[in-house]
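Structure first, sequence second, as always.
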């Protein structure tokens, strides 16, 4: 794990996290400890999350965090699903700010190119898959070798299967991504995650996401830190290195927890005062959630903040509708 000095890390105005492999296992949910640390971090810093998953997957992966974050802190959290081809922020409910949808013709061309590449590379997928292997996310088309729902259905066993596939087929996945890029010169192709290949509009990567943060939040990259597990050359976080943001490489969620604790330790006195005040609100929130679970109501009420239903992205009836999946 690359560790920045506490003073530098604690001085950043905004922390950008990759999702899969950084905050959570690939396609998995963040755990309770990470959720609690994020809630504390939001009291002293703004936070953005950029990941390759579609918006509904973001909802599922971050569910524990939404249950713990007090509602007044939600405007400090910014979500960039499908590799920042979409942006959601909280303003009396979650709002979609932009969406860079692929055209119907582009999506059809991408799916055809995938089929051609599989034949050329001699790739034959596993007999049993879990969900779609090629998923049209509207703003992104993604190939997932074992199916989009392998972790959702199988839990830890699904994650282990993804890791085993990665170790066996990583060179072939890179080869297929290169072949795909030749067929789709006007689009962006990335060998992403453990078992995935993503295709988006040209120029879409983690660097694009950071530029959008600069544009919409008016925070320069030099005042950000980016935390990711794939900052090595060829990794899907590598593009963040060319933005001017300080980058912190982690090996997984355990390292990320250490990074957040480092930031909280390095926060200034004024920050920590607001952190203690927010922490009291977080404690009250956790107590309410516990009471709700005891009464058997929490599972029916969605995600909560200070006892009020905090609508997740996608709950706002007036926002742009996401493409059908």
């Amino acid at each position: 794990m690359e560790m920045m000095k506490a003073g530098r890390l604690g001085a950043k105005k905004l922390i950008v996290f990759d999702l899969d492999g950084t905050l959570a296992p690939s396609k998995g949910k963040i755990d309770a400890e990470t959720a609690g640390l994020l809630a504390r971090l939001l009291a002293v810093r703004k936070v953005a999350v950029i990941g390759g998953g579609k918006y509904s997957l973001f909802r599922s992966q971050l569910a524990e965090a939404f249950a713990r974050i007090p509602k007044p802190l939600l405007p400090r959290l910014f979500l960039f699903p499908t590799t920042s081809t979409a942006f959601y922020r909280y303003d009396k409910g979650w709002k979609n700010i932009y969406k860079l949808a692929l055209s119907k013709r582009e999506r059809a061309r991408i799916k055809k190119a995938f089929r051609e590449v599989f034949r050329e590379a001699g790739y034959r997928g596993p007999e049993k898959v879990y969900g779609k292997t090629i998923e049209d996310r509207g703003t992104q088309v993604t190939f997932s070798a074992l199916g989009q729902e392998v972790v959702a259905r199988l839990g830890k066993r699904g994650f282990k299967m993804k890791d085993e596939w990665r170790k066996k087929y990583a060179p072939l996945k890179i080869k297929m991504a290169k072949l795909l890029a030749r067929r789709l010169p006007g689009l962006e192709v990335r060998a992403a995650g453990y078992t995935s290949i993503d295709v988006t509009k040209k120029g879409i990567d983690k660097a694009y996401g950071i530029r959008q943060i600069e544009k919409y939040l008016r925070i320069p990259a030099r005042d950000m830190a980016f935390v990711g597990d794939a900052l090595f050359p060829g990794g899907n976080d590598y593009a963040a290195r060319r933005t001017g943001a300080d980058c912190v490489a982690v090996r997984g969620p355990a390292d990320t927890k250490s990074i957040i604790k480092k930031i909280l330790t390095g926060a200034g006195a004024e920050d920590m005062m607001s952190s203690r005040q927010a922490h009291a609100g977080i404690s009250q929130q956790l107590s309410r959630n516990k009471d709700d679970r005891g009464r058997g109501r929490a599972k029916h009420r969605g995600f909560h903040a200070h006892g009020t239903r905090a609508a997740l992205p996608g709950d706002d009836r007036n926002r742009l509708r996401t493409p059908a999946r």
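Margin note: Confidence is low (pLDDT under 50) at residues 269-279, 295-325.
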